[in-house]
Amino acid sequence: MKAILSVDELRQYKEQGYVFPKYRLPAPLLDRLRKGMDRLLATYTDVAQEDLANPHMIPPTESAQLNPFMETARHEAILDMVEQVLGPDVVLWITRVLCKPPRNGREVPWHQDGEYWPMRPLATCSVWIAVDPVSAVNGCMRFIPGSHKQQKLYRHHQANREKPGVELELDRDQFDESAAVNVELEPGEMSLHDVRMIHGSLANTSGQRRAALILRYMPATSHYDRSLVAPEKGQQPFNIFDQPLWQMRGIDRSGKNDFAHGHELWKKRYASGLALPKGSEG
User: Which of these, 11, 13, 20, 65, is most buried using a 10 Å CB contact count?
Assistant: First the structure.
């Protein structure tokens, strides 16, 4: 492991729950990632662009010539940064395209990711990589600094709005929105944030696309416990029950993680289209 994050950057992650590393994705990899994303968005039109999960499962996934999403997830500098945060045993448990199309990119209400996720102990570092320029104009993400520090999940309620982006949103008395920080990034720049970070984003009403790739890693001391997932979650394009796990570094310290489940399913879904037929379980 190389120390990609400086002492100050690592301190900020621990104190504030997020960091914008000085490190930037190399231009050739960014170009491959952008071209791969453009192909993906043009090909898989049977689900919303915000619902495109696990593009790293598009073949090839294990040969020397990886698809650009898996290539990015395996990029040594990214894994080095994640290792600095999570420790030496690292599991990739999902990747996701986060694309807000021009003029009608949907809002994501304030929430904590940990409200949804089934790993125990609850732990994830999310690496959010800008493919397009990202600003307040086209619906950038927003963080509440330090909101992770109490290591708790705050009170949420059902999001009562049209196409909100997430099912649950935080009660307004649980945080101070005036403290929000905009996550404005140039292509190839990235943010890292903690699983309990309070965050959200506004709708994209501009004429500019806002495309990004997010990589989510957990320490292999945690168990991805599928028994905690409600059955109906297998009915959604973003199928949290059938997430394929990849051991990226180290070993499975928990001794409980299933690294076979979901792999063939996602390969078949990308071969035949991502929308699930009615009554399908994934």
Answer: 13
